[in-house]
Amino acid sequence: MSLPTERNNLALSSTLAPDDLAALTRMLESTDPLADAVIAELHALGPAANRTLHDGLVNGRASLTEIPPAIDALLEQVETLPAWVEPDIMRRGSTAYLTIEPLWNDIALAIGSLVHIYAAPAIAKVLGSTNDLVDPTSANHRLTETAVWVYSTMLPGGLARGARGYVGTIQVRLLHARIRAFNLQRGWDVGAWGVPINQADLARTWLDFTYTPYRALTKFGFDFTDGEVRDAYHLWQYLGYLLGVDATIYRNVGKRTDISTHSDAEKLLAVLEASNKGPDDTSRHLVATMMTIMTQAIVASLKTPFAMTSDISNAMLRFLHGDALADQLGIGATSLTAFMPMLAFANQTTRTVQRSIPAVWQHLGDEAVKTYTKLIEENGATAEYRDRLNAQAKATTA
After folding, report:
1. Which residues of 341-356 are buried (b: 16+ CB within 10 A; e: fewer)?
2. Is the pLDDT of residue 132 over 80?
3. DSSP 8-state code for residue 266
4. Mean pLDDT of the chain
5. Domain boundaries in the chain?
6. What is the DSSP string of 359-380?
7. 3 state SS of 196
8. How far is residue 176's CA from residue 242's CA, in Å, rounded to a whole number?
9. Which comes out higher in pLDDT, residue 397 or 370?
10. Distance CA 235, CA 223 (A)
11. From CA 342, how far away is CA 271, in angstroms rounded?
């Protein structure tokens, strides 16, 4: 088996075991058939089918009388709780995350996760095709949308059937399928790039909501116990299931590919990175736009001058990702990078004190639920995914 021409990082793929290379090749050829079928069905049936889909997500499959077959199959899958899901762990999965204030979680998501996502040229190519993340105004809206989606999944009960996090997660999944269909219709070169938003890219993005941000937060001084990390991965395994990521990638206990620790995640990431070359111009453009938006968010929070804050943002990126990747992404060097360990030490000291006082630790969690709930209500991101799917259905019947 061989990787698609533009997805073959020879320096890395040549070191893969034959089984890993074969698995990676299959992932690059595989999509999410249930979601793809729903998008095709929405194209064929129009807005009425979209309303059925939304009603089914919010009120449950049993509330519907007539269900188109693809929507029915998707609803049956997402409403079937996998046998491996442990409710107690699910409840604990976001506890430590919710003790961290939104600005730091946003930094971990943007400067940690999104930089790593955009650095992969194949993923950047798909994201750039929508223009949503190229134009600064729409990019700002989309980044807020992504952050609020994550918040909604982390809140207690956020993934219960019909809850905002649950509905938003399925809508994100369908948005992926819509973008995949859009690119294929426009002549996407599968032989060169693999299928757009394939299982390898979904798995890598899954790691960028687990491994990458938690590692970033840890590097900035926000510690997590081994148990908290395992709980977080278990929660995200269920999120991966709802998002249409092939469960054998992150939950195949029999083949010892169960991703429940950072060490496990690093092994998977090493395989996936063999399908990614270095950042290209689209990567650099997406990162530059995102860094401007994140810098503006930090300015709004800390009331610091933009130029100085831009240096801080650049220092954070270099601290998290290293000078080599920062140079490839066109992020300027700054002397402030040397101060990042001091910032991490201050966060670590504060967090150690917070952990040592149970009442304080509990208060952090309680206040975080209120804060994140308020942010979600102020932004209403879940409705945006629904609006996008509605627009798509209307366009295809016009």
Report:
1. eebbeebeeebeeeee
2. no
3. H
4. 90
5. 5-397
6. HHHHHHHHHHHHHHHHHHHHH-
7. coil
8. 13
9. 370
10. 18
11. 34
